[in-house]
Amino acid sequence: MLKGGWCQFSVFLIIILSLALIPSVYARVSGPCVNCHTMHNSQNGSVVDPDGPNKYLLNVGTDPCIACHTGTNKGGGSSNGTTPYVFSNIPPTYGKDTLAGGNFYWVTLDGSKGHNCLNVPGMTPDGNLTTAPGGPVSGGACAGCHDRIDNCESCHTPRHHADDTQTAVVGAAGGFYRFLNSSAHGNNETGVKGIEDDDWEYTVSPSDHNEYAGCTDPVHSGVNLSSDDYSMSAYCAGCHSNFHGYVNTSTDTSNGGSPWLLHPTGYALSDTAAGKEYHNYNGGAGYSPLAPLARDQARLATMTGSSATVYVAAGQAEGDQVMCLSCHRAHGTPYRDMLRWDYSACDAGSANASCGCFVCHTSKDE
Prior knowledge:
This protein is mostly loops.
């Protein structure tokens, strides 16, 4: 196979590597090791990769993540049905060929529209920010991880050989949900748990979507996001915790107070006072992928797939929660601040089905 030249090798390599991302029983990589790895960057007297050996001895250019995850998503989640593409060289159609995390394409045009992942071709550092907004630290040994995103592994720790078929909820044994885990801490306490949609939300509906772990204490007045509890919000808080704080401000650690000065995160939709607008999330029609929710972890552990059911009963401390991804997509969107929708088009008192704010704030568009 290698004698056919680098182009032929690349085709086979991408196909084999993409198998790593097939869900269910095909979660693990299979096939000849040589298709993905080289021991000495040499084959038949010639270098295999002119950029030199990479992490994990891979042969896919300077950055193996982008090399395999660049393309246009089509039927089945991608052009070959196995690889989720997070960066496109041509304008993607938002909501049609973009996946759950969005696409870095828009960030290369405008750094305010997503994470500035610097290993993406054409990506430049943010012109306004030198550190992560709302970051808990600046400088020192922690800055390399918490202050900025240098590459894909700033957020993901690849575990393509891990078996995530043991349970519906992907945790440490499967390399954590979408490989979201900090390897810098040297333990498994900083990962994210969740249930992975089998086509990365290429097709999405109230009953066909990712499921995310919520904070372990979704009380109505807010939660401490500084603890590592496998939730999506706590993971994002590793770089952005001061954006939302604990309750109403970045310093207020009490369990009360009004008005809210920062949007709550890890906050249960349920409320002890009956009749609140949050009881009518999505008009009572169930889960909305426009503004997704995180699940109580005890409930998540019993789930075997995505659910259209939303738990917002009055007084229920284990209700579904607002999380960071309720409003944002992690890679990028056509909208500023990587929002899921056009915030400038959200007008109070005017019905707008495409404004995700009104999915939770159900009385504000009337």
